[in-house]
């Protein structure tokens, strides 16, 4: 019988690896730096490590106001140039990320991270922003996510989709999901989230998700249209390997 070995407890250095370390030295008060025996001024002879703490620094918000500068030609203004009109050139301010609203890249990135990585609903994020001093409604947060998804992420998704179809080996799987307030469907109705992944071919992995309101194979067939490699397709615990998927493939069964 093998002897049970207790797992080694991680050290603070391992737990906090990568975090910035700030050294705080607590000096001896001046009134205590006098020798209690002879009254001589004592001198520093060393320091000793005592303990460490993990400090949390809450997030802060600030407003950035952009101004453009205008430059005018004094010669043209005085009629000394080749034009009768004054020449004015303005500096170009970076375009807004979303329309003309106050959304910045960091603001939307944090909103998306909180919702999709940490599972924090927008109505709770709305309360957080209020505590930071910003009155941002959940509707505005949702509109920011939708706009960036359509205008920035969708082109990236389409690019990686085209790259995935060029691979010689791919994998696909479906998972049940529940969607609330979907138009024309009851909340109890089951929907499915498809995952498509490139194979282990030595190239960078490509992982894409695709939503389908039904479990019909039409979604996978549409996604893999034009694909001519091998695909492992997992549907409802049924595993099919080495099946050549083409635009004529039947994935409904």
From TrEMBL:
<feature type="domain" description="Transposase IS66 zinc-finger binding">
    <location>
        <begin position="33"/>
        <end position="76"/>
    </location>
</feature>
<dbReference type="Pfam" id="PF13005">
    <property type="entry name" value="zf-IS66"/>
</dbReference>
<dbReference type="InterPro" id="IPR024474">
    <property type="entry name" value="Znf_dom_IS66"/>
</dbReference>
<dbReference type="InterPro" id="IPR052344">
    <property type="entry name" value="Transposase-related"/>
</dbReference>
<dbReference type="InterPro" id="IPR004291">
    <property type="entry name" value="Transposase_IS66_central"/>
</dbReference>
<dbReference type="Pfam" id="PF03050">
    <property type="entry name" value="DDE_Tnp_IS66"/>
</dbReference>
<feature type="domain" description="Transposase IS66 central">
    <location>
        <begin position="100"/>
        <end position="231"/>
    </location>
</feature>
<protein>
    <submittedName>
        <fullName>IS66 family transposase</fullName>
    </submittedName>
</protein>
């Amino acid at each position: 019988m093998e002897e049970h070995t207790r797992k080694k407890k991680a050290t603070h250095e391992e737990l906090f690896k990568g975090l910035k370390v700030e050294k705080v030295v607590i000096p001896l008060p001046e009134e205590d730096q006098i020798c209690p025996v002879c009254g001589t001024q004592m001198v520093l002879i060393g320091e000793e490590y005592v303990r460490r703490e993990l400090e949390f620094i809450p997030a802060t918000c600030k407003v950035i106001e952009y101004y453009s500068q205008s430059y005018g030609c004094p010669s043209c203004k005085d009629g000394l140039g080749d034009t009768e009109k004054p020449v004015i050139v303005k500096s170009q301010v970076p375009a807004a990320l979303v329309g003309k609203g106050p959304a910045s890249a960091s603001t939307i990135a944090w909103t998306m991270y909180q919702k999709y990585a940490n599972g924090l609903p927008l109505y709770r994020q709305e309360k957080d922003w209020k505590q930071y001093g910003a009155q941002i409604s959940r509707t505005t947060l949702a509109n920011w996510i939708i706009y960036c998804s359509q205008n920035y992420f969708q082109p990236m998704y389409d690019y990686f989709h085209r790259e995935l179809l060029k691979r010689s080996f791919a994998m696909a799987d479906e998972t049940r999901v529940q969607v609330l307030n979907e138009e024309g469907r009851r909340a109890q109705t089951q929907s499915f989230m498809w995952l498509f992944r490139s194979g282990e071919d030595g190239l960078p992995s490509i992982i894409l998700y695709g939503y389908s309101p039904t479990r019909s194979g039409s979604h996978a067939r549409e996604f893999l249209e034009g694909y001519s490699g091998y695909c492992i397709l997992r549907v409802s615990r049924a595993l099919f390997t080495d099946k050549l998927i083409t635009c004529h493939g039947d994935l409904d069964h």
